[in-house]
Amino acid sequence: MDSSRRLEDVLSMQGGEDDVSYAKNSHGPAAALASSKPMLTSAIHSIKLTKGCSSHLKIADLGCAVGDNTFSTVDTVVEVLRHKLTLINGKSDQPEPELEVFFSDLPSNDFNTLFRSLEEKVNSSSQKYFAAGVPGSFYRRLFPKGELHVVVTMSALQWLSQIPEKVMEKGSKTWNKGRVWIQGTEGEVVEAYAEQADKDLVQFLQCRKEEIVEGGVLFMLMGGRPSGLVSQVSDHDSRLKYLFTTLMDQAWQDLVDEGLIEEEKRDGFNIPVYLRNTEEIASAIDRCGGFKIEKMEVLKITDPMNVKHQELMRDPQSYGRAMSNMVQAGLKPIIEAYLGPDLTRKLFDRYAIRAAASNEFIKKFSFYYMIAVSAIRV
Fold first, then answer.
1. Among 29, 88, 201, 326, which has the minimal tally of Cβ within 10 Å of its Cβ?
2. Mind telling me which Pfam families this protein's record contains (predicted)?
């Protein structure tokens, strides 16, 4: 990223509802949500509520993004909470519980699209709740002390608060030359990312420790990797690696080879993502204090695009566009902030061409890992 602009000012999933929007290209996160739902349900059941407890419970979805996944997560939390309150209070004279949901993300998030669909979603559901938007980084305090009963963050914590400063030192061992992500790069670069990821997670937890009531629940689902795995991507043939490393690096190199950008411009862009392992997460929670891990599980997610890819094999151009759209859903806003609209369009045109030519890779069966953590505020 351009050092003159803060990452949090430009980082977001692609807004709107067109072909490159996150709302239309979030099949992977949807699959992860589905896999984590039993664990999320169990986590909500573990919240410490007693008969006659407050009828006003507050829920926060941090890094909410936009689209059906956002509402799916909140619907699950609200449904389980209402069921739990019914079991505790029974059919008594207790008032109908009022649930308040805070949808929070960076200011660059497409809150307009979120709010346009929010009223319809809430009014058409039997699990009604009051809603509000809270813009801001979840690496800082967002709510008053002891305010929240349930906090969820889904497929968001793998995004860092910033590119590590060491990685931006041109010519140093941590200068990530020729790559846009850290998969396959020098060990010093990975270590710099790991340090930033650890600092970020501890900061996130310290903020939530202040905001969540004792007995409340924190549920985190993030891109990750299994214990003992050094590589950021588990399967060397995985589509995740190919989409965000090989094809991206090739597309950026195309811009360099065509004289559209200088090598230094290419080398200055880095994807602010780090996939933690279970030890790194547990260590951060332990050092922060204030939380007891109820359960931590590595989820192996089958790429929901596997079947779709087989269909697209008959039309390589459609495949190329589909892969370009999916990557743009997560990266277009920060790339456009760095390159501008015209070069960004050219970059993803080259990306689509490269993807269309990768016939052999289309046949590969792909998966990826997520880590789910449920913790109680103690």
1. 88
2. Methyltransf_7 (PF03492)
- Domain-located, residue 73: yes
The reported pLDDT for the residue numbered 50 is 59
CB 122 within 8 A of CB 183: no
Gap between the Cα atoms of 259 and 265, Å rounded: 11
Burial of 94 (0-12, 13-18, 19+ CB in 10 A): middle
Query: What is the residue whose two structure tokens read 């008959």?
Result: 314
CATH code assigned at 152: 3.40.50.150
Residue 61 covered by a domain: yes
Q: If residue 323 lies in a helix (H) or strand (E), which one and from where to where?
A: helix 316-339
Q: In sequence order, what E strands does 70-147 have?
A: 98-105, 130-135
Checking if the pLDDT of 235 tops 60, the result is no
Rounded Cα distance between 280 and 37, Å, is 23
- In-domain check, residue 104: yes
Domain that holds residue 332: 7-377
HSE-up of residue 87 (Cα within 13 Å, Cβ side):
8
* Spatial separation of the C-alpha atoms in residues 304 and 288, rounded to whole Å: 35
* Cβ density class 266-295: b for 16+ within 10 Å, e for less: bbbbbbbbbbbbbebbeebbeebebbeebe
Q: Burial, 123: exposed, middle or buried (Cβ in 10 Å; 0-12, 13-18, 19+)?
A: exposed
- Is residue 1 in some structural domain? no
Average pLDDT over residues 261-273: 91
Tell me: the pLDDT tens digits for 133-156?
999 999 999 999 999 999 999 989
203 closest CA partner among 276, 136, 278, 137: 137
DSSP 3-state of 123: helix
Query: CA-to-CA distance for 180 and 270, rounded, in angstroms?
Result: 5
- And the tokens for 243? 């989409």
